[in-house]
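Morning F.,

Quick status update on the modeling queue. The single chain you submitted on Monday has been processed. Sequence for confirmation:
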Amino acid sequence: MPATTGDVPEAALSQHAAGENRKAAKRQRRRRGAAATGHGVPARDGISARNGGSSALAEQTVAPVQADGEPGGQARQANRQNSKRWRRRKQKGKASVPGQPDMLRNLRPPVQPSQVPSFSSSGTAPAGRPRSNWRNNARRRGGQPAPAGHTGRGPAHGSQPVFAALDLGTNNCRLLMAVPQAHGGFRVVDAFSRIVRLGEGLAATGVLSKDAMDRAVDALAICAAKLRSHKVSGKRLIATEACRRASNGMEFLERVRRVTGLELEIVDRETEARLAAEGCGSLVDRHADGAVLFDIGGGSSELILVDRRKHGKGHSGGRLISGLIAGWTSMPLGVVTLSEHHGGRNVTPHSFALMVEEVSAHLEAFEERHSLADIWHPARTHLLGTSGTVTTIAGVHLELPRYDRRKVDGIWLSDGQIDKVINDLVAMDYDQRAMNPCIGRERADLVLAGCAILQAIRQVWPSPRLRVADRGLREGILSELMHAAGVWEGEEVRARP
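Structure tokens below.
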């Protein structure tokens, strides 16, 4: 029985191909003669002429400009454009060739409806298609883009355990979900962040306002939906300074439980400081004797003194960084409280200096501030900051067209670079700060309060270099949860990238 392709015999295919070759050769001879005499070629396949009745193909046979700028021969161009090889290259990859006989078109099996990929509104990739390629193709084909609000989402995590950390602060509501990786690392599978300003007006009234609580509950409802969508092995949901200080803080958390099902715990300042250290401690210079780690928050700011001499430099030995803490303090001052007290929109050099003085007074009361005095040397110590303030300063210094965590996290800033950015921001008005893509209108009235806190810290612990960390409490919670679950037992814990 002769071999077949679909329902068409092989002999029929050969006969058809031979006939097509003869027809093509005849058409080629006819066009070569027409080009040599200067006459146009009739339009094919019903294609109407674009210029004065001449065909589209006739336009292509007008003498083209060669690489050296000289016109080429019309006949030579016509031969090239109508050769079989040229037509094959031109039609390569297309579903069908214009004028192709129905017999050959039908050789391709029809696509069944079940084989056509569907792009769902949920933003998930069709079965059997790699997620990374699908996301790029979905944008080009009109499919759903990657959900807004999170970056660094990894591929499906399968049976790996998922851990979650939620931090409800005075200014932000943040969620981070990740699966453990080798050597103390983890990969983010989902994240959420929104400015809610829960502590708005708290310093003046002592209570959380209705509007602020409504904003926070709306954000927490989104977090609850994300937590339900993953099989979470362990989680910790914390609330910090705003709920600590507000007289109706517990009442608010009860409302959160009723509406969203989330049970948040209010952590003390020592726990907050330790978690911040765990979150960004891997960025401490492994060859330094010590570092001052600080977290400038919305309602409070934490400082941690890290002494690496306790367990030796250059390695972690699988220990959490909490074992290297030589002292810590928490100030009831953050970007929200300080800006509400001194004003955040219209900041003058004088009002900025007053903010620095207020922060300095709190640092003077920190009894352990001199615990690193014997090792505090520019070549052996440094500052490490984790907050929206230091990441904003880094983004402004880099002149980023939009904030990019990958370019900011872990960057080193010199003393002079920090001074220049702060001086430039003080010289700007509110609208100018809001126009900066790394600040925006939501932070334009808060950024100078954060700069004042940073300036006070730099006065007490002068250092020629500061390292920027775009990580903090949530990463610290995840690190502790994964350590407690024993996911890294028997492994050397290394610094996370």
